[in-house]
Specification:
- It is built from 3 helices and 9 strands, in the order βββββαβββααβ.
- The protein has 154 residues and is of the alpha+beta class.
- The protein has one domain: Nucleoside Triphosphate Pyrophosphohydrolase (Alpha-Beta Complex), CATH 3.90.79.10.
- The protein has a 5-stranded mixed beta sheet with strand order 5-1-7-6-9, with helices on both faces. Strands 2, 3, 4 and 8 form a 4-stranded antiparallel beta sheet that branches.
- 27% of the residues are buried.
Length: 154
């Protein structure tokens, strides 16, 4: 549906990596317009790439860890309050690969940090969005959908 000014609305498509190791999840601490916030390694889908490719790229760029998505945890639609923007997030679980400690992190990323589910829950006031904790809860509940649920056509 178009708004009165005939502007065509569309959501911002993002991907997020749910990376768990030994009971801890890999998050990033990043600078945002709202201050320093926690987020999963996440970012926008770039032109021409698949959702899986975007997730792999974002995880590497933001954490310097290789990540291979193996399952879709969920799809989340979040209209951000006080802003004219809606995010459509595809969250993936997968396999953690090698770490490159010499690789610089994306601009705005202060550090990558491993937190327990309890620590993530306790820091919700510092989350970039409510999607961070919801994704962790869904992951812990065992939500995993096969990647062939998503079809990418070149």
């Amino acid at each position: 549906m178009n708004s009165p000014d005939n502007h065509i609305w569309k959501p911002n498509v993002t991907v997020a990596a749910l990376i768990e190791r030994d009971g801890r999840f890999l998050l990033v601490e990043e600078e945002t317009d709202d201050g320093i916030r926690f987020n999963q390694p996440a970012g926008h889908l770039d032109a021409g790439e698949s959702l899986v490719m975007a997730c792999t790229r974002e995880a590497l760029e933001e954490t310097a860890w290789q990540f291979t998505p193996t399952a879709l945890v969920g799809v989340y639609q979040w209209p951000r309050p006080q802003r004219d923007i809606t995010y459509l997030r595809f969250a993936f679980a997968g396999v953690l690969g090698k770490h490159d400690p010499l690789r610089p992190l994306d601009k705005g990323i202060l550090r990558a940090v491993w937190l327990t589910a309890e620590e993530i829950e306790a820091t919700q006031a510092r989350h970039r969005s409510p999607l961070i904790w919801q994704c962790v809860q869904d992951y812990l509940a065992g939500r995993r959908f096969p990647l062939d649920l998503i079809r990418h056509y070149d």
